[in-house]
TrEMBL record:
Name listed for the protein in its UniProt record: Probable sugar-binding periplasmic protein
Entry's family note: Belongs to the bacterial solute-binding protein 1 family.
Signal peptide segment: 1-32
Subcellular location: Periplasm
Xref: Pfam families: SBP_bac_1
Keyword terms of this UniProt record: Signal, Transport
Function: Part of a binding-protein-dependent transport system for a sugar.
Source domain of life: Bacteria
Classification lineage: Bacteria, Pseudomonadati, Pseudomonadota, Gammaproteobacteria, Alteromonadales
InterPro entries for this protein: Bact_solute-bd_prot1, SBP
Length: 425
């Protein structure tokens, strides 16, 4: 039975007509059209928040079809998406963020959101950084759903209480706490062992050492003077000092491994964006009881953001179901979806007009800081550069972190050469 007909019938005719149950059942069945969505939410907390999306879509007769690519902070997903898109068979929607939105739009593969639904109210409830993030040439080209904070340091409450430790706010304090814990036989900090996780730590250190403005100049504008500055060399040196706490078993491990080690009280501290909180919520752990969230040392007053958003694709070989796409957009932008989703995901809603009183304290802090702090785009989370530029930069950063022979000076020189090659600057 025709999807649009069913929808219209249910919305307008149902209240005044008596219809047979069978008729409605067939209508409902036929109207639940499969809607394929690419994403990389495959860890427990991510799966639970994704399920919120599935349920909200189901209520609106859209059947979510999973196109999930495991892990790596989305690195793998982008490659698979490229292959599907090049073969002319993209999914209906995909989790694409930051400058990649414009790159996909340049290939003329995306549908403008304004063509699907009335977006005139968006500017009243979306913060400016969010609006800018999803706008390409004055058109909304993606639907933003949430905001993650990246520059968090997580503290294990049990270990911090046991040793009567205070949260470190400077790197000096951080090393004092870490070395004290190591002297007691406690693992001070746990890392995953993939390039994007190494770079995520580097990025927060860069914010602390360069400050917000120079961080942007280096990793968003690719300003050569900042990239080759002494402050950048110091950033690399400080970053390398953290490698002292790395251990061989972390090699190749994704963030779910370090997240579990931390919450199982195997390590006292963890650097990660607040999606990690979703993995703890999923197993009943509570903010400020089992763990605490503090800005990475030296980054108080700066909020490095990661906005999850979805683009919608044109279809070359099959009819576009624009009706479903418009329902998808409206569902993602609805207040209840944005609240229900972020509560489980560890983020805050993209909309700034929603009640967060039922959110945990870390999300409330995040929301407050987002309002008042200087905001910088997280380059490891594709917010500052395209993912292909990012991939090369994070590989260099990771190689340096794990190398015994590469000096900070040489790494900075290599970064300068790489950025010139990537941007012809
Ligand atoms: C990020 C994504 C987050 C989070 C994380 C780890 O790129 O924006 O939503 O899930 O990857 O998978």
């Amino acid at each position: 039975m025709n999807h649009l007909f069913c929808k219209t019938f249910k919305n307008y005719a149902l209240p005044v007509l008596t219809v047979s149950y069978l008729w409605l059942a067939s209508c409902h069945h036929a109207s639940a059209l499969p809607f394929e969505v690419l994403h990389w939410w495959t860890e427990q907390g991510e799966l639970e928040s994704k399920q919120v999306l599935v349920e909200h879509l189901k209520v609106n007769d859209i059947e979510f079809e999973d196109f999930a690519i495991v892990g790596s902070g989305g690195g793998g997903a982008i490659h698979v998406l490229q292959m599907r898109a090049l073969s002319g068979n993209p999914p209906e929607a995909a989790q694409i963020k930051g400058p990649d939105i414009a790159e996909w739009n340049n290939l003329s593969m995306l549908i403008g959101i304004n063509e699907l639904t009335d977006t005139s109210a968006w500017e009243h409830f979306l913060p400016k950084v969010v609006l800018d993030d999803v706008t390409v040439e004055k058109q909304y080209m993606a639907v933003p759903i949430n905001i993650h904070r990246v520059n968090w340091l997580w503290l294990n409450s049990k270990i911090f209480k046991q040793y009567g430790l205070a949260a470190p706010t400077t790197w000096k304090q951080f090393f004092a706490v870490a070395n004290f814990l190591a002297s007691k036989g406690v693992k001070p900090v746990v890392f995953g062992g993939t390039p994007w996780q190494d770079a995520l730590l580097f990025e927060s250190i860069a914010i602390s050492e360069l400050g917000a403005e120079k961080y942007r100049q280096a990793f968003e504008a690719f300003n050569h003077d900042v990239i080759s500055s002494d402050e950048m060399i110091n950033t690399f040196k400080l970053f390398k000092q953290l490698h002292h706490y790395a251990t061989p078993e972390q090699q190749g491990q994704d963030w779910t491994w370090s997240s579990q080690a931390f919450i199982n009280n195997e390590a006292a501290m963890l650097f990660m964006g607040d999606w990690v909180k979703g993995s703890w919520t999923a197993i009943g752990k509570k903010a400020m009881q089992d763990y605490q969230c503090v800005p990475v040392p030296g980054t108080k007053g700066v909020f490095s953001y990661n906005i999850d958003s979805f683009v919608l694709f044109k279809k070359a070989h099959s009819p576009i179901d624009q009706h479903s796409q418009s329902i998808f957009v409206d569902t993602l932008m609805s207040p209840t979806f944005q609240q229900d989703f972020s509560k489980l995901k560890g983020s805050i809603p993209a909309r700034n007009d929603l009640d967060l009183s039922e959110f945990d304290e870390c999300s409330q802090l995040s929301s407050n800081d987002f309002k008042h702090d200087i905001k910088v785009p997280s380059f490891t989370q594709n917010m500052a550069t395209s993912s292909h530029q990012k991939a090369q930069i994070i590989q260099l950063i990771s190689d340096y972190f794990n190398s015994d022979s590469l000096s900070a000076e040489d790494a900075v020189k290599q970064l300068g050469v790489m950025v010139k090659a990537l941007t012809s600057k």
